[in-house]
Amino acid sequence: MLDLLRWTTQHFAERGIDTPRLDAECLLAFALGCDRLALYVNHDRPVDDGERARFRDLVRERAASRVPVALLVGEREFWSLRLRVTRDVLVPRPDTETLVAAALDLFPDREAELAVLDVGTGSGAIALAIASERPKARVTATDVSAPALAVARDNAERLGLAGRIRLAEGPLFEPVAGERFDLVVSNPPYVALRDAASLAPELAHEPRGALFAGADGTDVLRAFAAQVREALAPDGAALVELDPAQADTVAAWLAAADLREVRTHRDMAGRARVVAARRRE
Ligand SMILES: C[S@@+](CC[C@H](N)C(=O)[O-])C[C@H]1O[C@@H](n2cnc3c(N)ncnc32)[C@H](O)[C@@H]1O
After folding, report:
1. Atom of ligand 1 nearest to the CA of 241
2. pLDDT at 252 exceeding the cut of 90
3. What is the average pLDDT value for the chain, to the nearest integer?
4. Rounded distance between C-alpha atoms, residue 253 and residue 241, angstroms
5. Contact 133, 157 (CB under 8 A)
6. Is the Cα torsion angle 263, 264, 266, 270 positive or negative in sign?
7. Measured in angstroms, how far is the CA atom of residue 51 from the centroid of ligand 1?
């Protein structure tokens, strides 16, 4: 088993994959139906022909087609929640945990009965993380993609959170017109179309509508900033994820929309990743 791991790690590294050892471990564990630790604990366990063939197919998909590991194994961990992912949703990124942490910091009372809105929920990652941390919150999660909402529904059910999540289809604030929320969060598409040719090949396996938002990537961010105030209750807070290069622009848009306390939050790498603002009457 360790030989298989060594060979695959080298193969992935030669193909330019960023995390060759980790990817090899995840795929071998998936092919064998065990966890990564078991690969080392039971390293002398024989690998039968069926398992070997299954692993070989996964390695080929990863190395040749650059399919992300999360899509090959059908799940990804986010905020310690195990989420199902398919090609209909963005694979949740660790950067997005910055947004969850900042949102929870703004509303530190675990027992608060918050009305929360997650715009562009995808797999449900942000909505479910907040629902899991604030057990009395009522969370509405929207998306323009019906297939994405089906994945979010499945994840909510698997995590036992479906009773507190309402899913609604439509663009931005349209599905919740006239409603007010204490907390509005969003990780909208924000990749610039003009950068499409230079992106990692893995992104080709994720939905274009989850990634791209116009030539410079700000189409959805601009509309979000212009409309979010109407969806906020008095003292409500909005937090939006973005590319670090967009942070100053979006902060200025939020201030221009009469929101206060506009702040930037940095991700683990120290890059501006989230802009937050509050409605103060
Ligand atoms: C970057 S993904 C984020 C998914 C998830 N929230 C996460 O953080 O992993 C953006 C999501 O927004 C949805 N979306 C794109 N444009 C939208 C719009 N105008 N209104 C609502 N959702 C939108 C996409 O379908 C996609 O699921």
Report:
1. 8
2. yes
3. 96
4. 14
5. no
6. negative
7. 36
Residue with tokens 């918050």: 114
- For ligand 1, what atom is nearest to the CA of residue 96? 8
The pLDDT of residue 280 is 87
> Distance between CA 122 and CA 33 in Å, rounded?
27
- 164 pLDDT higher than 80: yes
Average pLDDT over residues 230-259: 97
- CA–CA distance, 78 with 103 (Å, rounded to integer): 15
| CB of 210 shorter than 6 A to ligand 1 | yes
The reply to whether ligand 1 has any atom less than 6 angstroms from the CB of 98 is no
Residue 171 CA, closest ligand 1 atom number: 20
How far apart are alpha carbons 11 and 207 in whole angstroms? 27
State the residue for tokens 């909208």.
Answer: 188
% pLDDT > 90, the chain: 96
